[in-house]
Input
Amino acid sequence: MKKLTRTITASFLILTLSGTMSCQDDFLERKPLDAISDADVWKDQALVQAFVNDLYARIWDPFRDDWKVMHTAVTDEGMYIRDKGTDVIVKGTLTPENMGSLTQFGRWTDYYKNIRNTNIFMSQIASVPFKDEKLRQRLIGEVYFLRAYYYFNLVSYWGGVPLFKENFDLNDKDGMLIERSSFADCVAAILEDCEKAIAQLPETHSSDNTGRATKFAAMALKSRLLLYAASDLYNKPGNTNALVGYTDGNQSQRWQAAKAAAKALIDQPGPHKLYTPTDSAAENYSRIFLDNHNPEILFAKLHNKQLSGTSVDLWNGPNGYHNWGGNVPLEEFVSGYQLRDGSTFSWTNPAQAAQPYTNRDPRFYASILYNGASWRTRPADAAASDPNGIIQTANIERWNNATGKIEVVPGVDTRNSPVENWNATTTGYYTRKFLDRNVDGQFFRGDQPWIMFRFAEILLNYAEACLELGEEAEARMYLTMVRKRAGMPAVGASVSGTALLDLYRYERKYELAFEGHRYFDVRRWVIAEQTLNKNATGIEILAKLNPDRTTHTYQYKVVQVATRAFHPKIYFSPIPVGEIRKNAKLVQNPLY
Output
């Protein structure tokens, strides 16, 4: 019997999309999973739904058990303390034979398998006997969205890629070996799928279908697609390589299209808005990433902690809580947070350097665990060292009455921690964003959603397009919306030109921090040589004992923690050598 091309796992037949979707009541009467054939699937409405659910499951998700490394680690936001294939990217030494962690981010092979399954679905769906025709049409809209999303991710890493819009036979090797399509043709194909998804998807789903793509998710994908397509990386003057960008001079028209796509979603009536559940700007920002189904989320991967849940609290939490450190912020990123009044922080300012974590952008407190930050109660074996749940990444001088000498005691969250010393930050900071202080990551899992599209991004997309079109007043208005929610000052009317562009890029960098945008933003803006071509730094902190032998004065020292370099070839990813060997028609990206 010919088996289904993509395994439909039991968990997704029984409880799909992290437990939020329902299944048919007669599930237990169905055939064993290892007996399900292609023919069975396309005769059964429930199995077709499970087939689509599996397409959702294959979306890359850094909160899942088999990932851990986030894009943060290969940008100027942060680093991963145990490498995990990030070094070859940040040092510019990756090759088609060794792509490091790009094999998990880009996922060329996996996404083409998924795309093939979307094409199988499209070729079979018309013949499936559905009891509810609206369900058929909704699933078609979802698969258009998913195919567009898979292709968008491929194009974001590689530029033009082979386009398969029809089903292909795995046994037909000649049919599978096709050339890369141009970047322009890929954008057009993805846009076509987005438009079809927008036309067919509902604005909302019933509670048992929460987590599926909606009309607004497809509009958000369209907005990001057109924003990227209008950006400088793909619109270089005189470009003749159609695989890595446009070869005409119509960038202004593309910015107009990006502006229109973002504004269409902003103006579309619906539940989407900036999330402000409390009176605290920092808490509002934190809750975006913890509260499932909040109105800022346009599309997210949901998790059910009773089934599998997320492990981000374990992976990224401080070692003084028996967590694993993981993706940690760099000093240059932390230093970049503005002060609360919108001014710039500087280590050369004595007052600021004496209290570097005071009066900063509220998003700083929702995103960074720094020395002195209040966190949660310590586990029993660490409580004696820290009964108050305060992050300790400093070394602390203490007076020893017995010896009559000063001793240096490492903080419980340092690399010499008395709790654990193998999993501490290398930079003096931990990532707070995404972590739930009510979840003990050592023993329990969370249910934080992995958000792929949210409303604040769309406001920023619109502001960027307006900026590029010279519409500064409009850009300031929408930039202020994002800053106001964050508790930051409005953009003044006098902020213009380069200063306004810099402020926009600040906003995008810190509003969307650690969410996977920075990797692509510095590339599409063609500023990676400036932002990524520098060594990574962290902070060393010593709590210096004062003469009273009781109080301390903190001393801070910025230190290099890793060497880094950016090579221009890394504006695009290399096509994996295995794919080149399988398909001689594939042309490798420039400089590899």
The first strand starts at residue 78 and ends at 80. Confidence is low (pLDDT under 50) at residues 1-30.
